[in-house]
Write a structure and sequence with these properties.
By secondary structure, this protein is an alpha+beta fold. It has a single domain, classed as tt1808, chain A (Alpha-Beta Complex), CATH 3.90.1570.10. The protein has 3 helices and 14 strands. The strands form 4 sheets. It has a 6-stranded mixed beta sheet with strand order 3-6-9-10-11-12, with helices on both faces. The chain has a 4-stranded antiparallel beta sheet with strand order 2-1-5-4, with helices on one face. Strands 7-8 form a two-stranded antiparallel ribbon. Strand 11 and strand 12 form a beta hairpin. The longest helix has 18 residues. It is globular and about 45 Å long. GO terms for molecular function: endonuclease activity. InterPro entries: Nuclease_put_TT1808, Restrct_endonuc-II-like, Uma2. Keywords: Endonuclease, Hydrolase, Nuclease.
Length: 178
Amino acid sequence: MNPNKDIYITPDEYEKLQETFNYKTEYDDGKIIMHWDTSDYHNEIVGNIAAYLKIYLKGSNCKVRIEQIEVIFDESHKYKPDVFVVCEESSMKGQSYTSVPKIIFEVISKSTASHDRITKLDIYQKHGVTEYNMVEQNGNIIQCTLKDDYYSINTYHKGDVYKSFVFPQLEIDLEDIF
């Protein structure tokens, strides 16, 4: 038996595993992506972004969700973004969202960097996530905005004011995030 051989897990097997497993996992085309414990700084960044979004969206039909809430893009791609926004037309299957979020923020960690920068970028683009933000813990945000089925890239640095494509009035001073 080859211990390095990839093992394919069906969507149903993944659902059963999730019922008994206490760790953050994501499902990606037959593979389980494990997320180990995050750092205090990672959690601080997630909380700061979520707080800004929650204040901005107060009174709207949109909701901010964080980390442990699953988004099912299709049966082969089930992710738990760090921070995302869903609006009134969102649909659910159990506790998982089945409609595409308006905006996603992923705080990049060493253990998930390539998955967030390559795989998720591709899946989010294919499924029509209008704005995907890769948040680097050094103070940068790489903003990907969907135009004509492809992402265009804008980079914000610590000290800049982030401006959302989806919510044009939303501006965040990155000094308040990092």
